[in-house]
Structures are given as structure tokens and as C-alpha cells.
Amino acid sequence: MSSSTTTPTAGQDHLWSVDEHVDDILATVRPLEPIELQLLDAQGCVLVEDVTVPVSLPPFDNSSMDGYAVRVADVAGASEEFPAVLTVVGDVAAGAGAQPTVGAGQAARIMTGAPLPPGAEAVVPVEWTDGGLGEGPVSGMRAHSAAPEGASGEVRVHRPAEARAHVRARGSDVQAGDRALTAGTVLGPPQIALLAAIGRGTVKVRPRPRVVVMSTGSELIQPGEQLADGQIYDSNSFALTAAARDAGAIAYRVGAVADDAETLRSTIEDQLIRADLVVTTGGVSVGAYDVVKEALSAIGDPDDEEGIGAGSGVEFRKLAMQPGKPQGFGSIGPDHTPLLALPGNPVSSYVSFEIFVRPAIRALMGLPDVHRATARAELSADKALNSPAGRRQFLRGTYDAEAGQVTPVGGSGSHLIAALAHADALIVVPEATTSVEPGTDVEVVLLG
Q1: Which of 386, 410, 399, 393 is closest to 448 using CA atoms?
Q2: Hey, CA dihedral for 55, 61, 65, 66, is it positive or negative?
Q3: pTM attached to this predicted model
Q4: Which residue among 63, 258, 267, 274 sits deepest, i.e. has the most Cβ atoms within 10 Å of its Cβ?
């Protein structure tokens, strides 16, 4: 991973566009190397190879009902008034070994999923029979343990059955040699079920990236503790850790780091052993206590062969966006671990995550589509929305897909976290637009 930029005008005085910053991140972050994982450990990961079916599903003809395996000719014309009376020659249970052969005038009691026994051509549901009790139709079978005699004697069948009725054919799901899953598939529960069903115990995937999230600020304390004067609860690290997990990562939250550059550098260095990506929040602006900027701007010492500065370079930028103007991006440590430094205001931090960090996580996973889905919607508002010239503004909103409308939630302040909690979309106001009237068609980033 290299911290070099893709834009020739890059530099401390260059006002980066949102697209330039995103492009630089995605040009630098590379998918993680594939590994072989057990099925449940591969949940949420991206498959890197096609998977071929080694054995047909189902692997044998089997019953889709609890009932009786019969020959078609023996039940032709059967009715409640004139039932077909068949001799029961045994049970066929799922997973059982030897099976009875069904001859003329015979039936085998069969359970759902059990193999169709030799000689049988169809299955009649138990509800079409007297269940061997010599009376009218029954609603089910008695448990074998309570009534083992049900596997013998006679059964009266009250309805005819066509050939292959209630029989699931061998290979009717997938056949040996078929492609079960293609490379690039994200493994969710149905895909893992299919892999297990065809006998795969492991699978080759790109692992879920490990993301370390830390917030900075001496004023931050943990939720559940007692606030003192000048203190606030650390919400950013919780929000970003949850967002990283939502994006598909394995996320680790580190407690807030005080405003001390050496402490921060040491904390980051300790975390590199378990990080494919580091995300910090706070300390990236122009204040005297912007510790992230202080700690990381100077790293990259060529003599530092093992520490945080080995092969490192983090650039702090100003972006033409609101909220989220100050941003940092680069690499740290001997493995060139990507680091994204986000601003500390809660809304700025979260918007920055959605626009920059989430795509980086998805790129590490090897996904082809790394961005949130977008839509066009009509702005539903009481008054026009104002936006600063030359800045791409992201406003919180609620999106009504059925009505094709989006409604702003809260104001534009980057500290308004309560409004963020009620939003499910970001309203995008382009750089060249300074006012958006109600009824205008706008771009919406969907957060759900």
C-alpha cells in the first residue's frame, strides 16, 4: 500500500473534491489475500473461486411426504367407498439402511426425505389412507416407537396416484458437475447451506477485514461513567465500530485516547497487529490540540524499520464538502496498513465513514460494488435548503421509496447526532448548487 496520491494538484493547500479523495483511497486499498475458512467462519466473506457440485441434490429419489410408497397400478381407481387394500411390507425412514422391495399389492410406509424403495412408483400421503387402522382417513402417523405394528398389516388407500407423485427426483435441485456458486458471491446463510449440502467443509474466500476504530479527545469518557464538567460521552467510536461491522468488517473498538501525540502513536502501534485498516476520529483540524494530525503528520522516518513510521505516510487534506472538510489518509507501520483519519464532530465522522471508509472496507473484501446504493427523489421540505458554494453538502433525511420523496431531518450542524439517529438517507447537494427548492429532484444516498 502506498500513500501517494492520484491527483497532480495534491498538497496541503489543495482543496480536494469528494471524488478525488474517494478515488485516491480506492486506488490505494487492495483486496485482502484469499484464505481457506471453515463454512461458518466464511459468513459474510467473498468467494474467490467457482464451486462445482460434486454430488447431485437430492442424491437419490426421495419422498416429499409422510405416507406410503406404492405401485401406480395398485391404487388406480381407489376411493373412500372402494379403497385399495395393500399389504404393508415395512418402513422406510430417512437415513435408514436396507429398504423393503414393493411388489404387486404391496406398500411401504415412508417418511419425508426417505429414499423411494425398489419397486415403488409413487407416494400417497398418509392423509389419503386409513393409516393401517381399518377406519376412515387419518391426519397423521402414530410414532413408530409407540406403534411399531404400523410397519406391517394392511393399509387402505382412498385416492389414486400418478407416477412419480410426491417424489423428489434425484438431481432435481442441482446435478453433479453444475456450478453451485460463482467467484464474487458474498456468502450468506443460504449460500453456506448450499455449500454444506454439497459436502464442502471449507471454502476459499477473501476474509472480512479487521478494522480498528479509535476516538481521540481528553474530554471523552465511556458511556455508563459519571460526567464531570467539560466532559462528554464517546459516541463516535461506538458509531464507527457498529458501522464497520455493518459494512462487513470485524471491528475492534479502542477506548478514547487522550490528547497526547506520543500516547496516540503508541496506541496505534499496539493495534497494528490486529488491523487491516485503522480508523481514527477527531484531532484532524487546525487546533492546538488536534493530536491525530500532530502524531501522524511527522511519521515516515526511513530509519524506523519496525515501528509505526516504517514505510508510512499520512496526508491531511481539506475537502470541498460539508460536513467533513478535514480528512486524513495514508499508511502506517511495516505492513503499510491503511489509515483513515476522520473529523471528530459526530455527524462529520459518520458521513465521512459512509462516503470514504465503507468503500475502503468493501474494497478490502474484494467486492465489485463498494458504494451505498443511491436513488433520485423529490425534496419534501417547508423551505429551500441552502448550501455553501463550492462544497458538496450531505444532509440527513428520511426516504420514502413508495412516494419517491426525501424529507430533511434536523439542520446542517455537524454536532446534531439526534437527527442522525432518525435518518435513513443522505441528501446530496452538489458543489455548484447553493439553494434547493422544495419539489426539486435530488440525489439520495440510502443508508439502509
Answers
A1: 399
A2: negative
A3: 0.81
A4: 63
Nearest-angstrom CA–CA distance, 216 and 266: 13
The 3 state secondary structure assigned to the chain is CCCCCCCCCCCCCCEECHHHHHHHHHHHCCCCCCEEEECHHHCCCEECCCEECCCCECCCCEECCCEEEECHHHHCCCCCCCCEEEEEEEEECCCCCCCCCCCCCEEEEECCCCECCCCCCEEEEHHHECCCCCCCCCCCCCCCCCCHHHHCCEEEECCCCCCCCCEECCCCCECCCCEEECCCCECCHHHHHHHHHCCCCEEEEECCCEEEEEEECCCEECCCCCCCCCCEECCHHHHHHHHHHHCCCEEEEEEEECCCHHHHHHHHHHHHHHCCEEEEECCCCCCCCCHHHHHHHCCCCCCCCCCCCCCCEEEEEEECEECCCEEEEEEECCCCEEEEEECCCHHHHHHHHHHHHHHHHHHHHCCCCCCCCEEEEEECCCCCEECCCCCEEEEEEEEECCCCEEEECCCCCCCCHHHHHCCCEEEEECCCCCEECCCCEEEEEECC
Number of neighbouring beta carbons within 10 Å of residue 92: 25
Are 320 and 339 contacting, i.e. CB atoms less than 8 angstroms apart? no
Residue type, 209: P
Cell 464531570 found at: 228
pLDDT in single tens digits along all 448 residues of the chain:
444 444 444 445 789 999 999 999 999 999 999 999 999 999 999 999 999 999 899 999 999 999 999 999 999 999 999 999 999 999 999 887 789 999 999 999 999 999 999 999 999 999 999 998 888 788 877 776 666 666 789 999 999 999 999 999 999 999 999 999 999 999 999 999 999 999 999 999 999 999 999 998 888 888 888 888 888 888 999 999 999 999 999 999 998 888 888 888 899 999 999 999 999 998 776 665 567 878 886 554 445 555 555 556 889 999 999 999 999 999 998 899 999 999 999 999 999 999 999 999 999 999 989 999 999 999 999 999 999 999 999 999 999 999 999 999 976 554 567 888 899 999 999 999 999 999 999 999 999 8
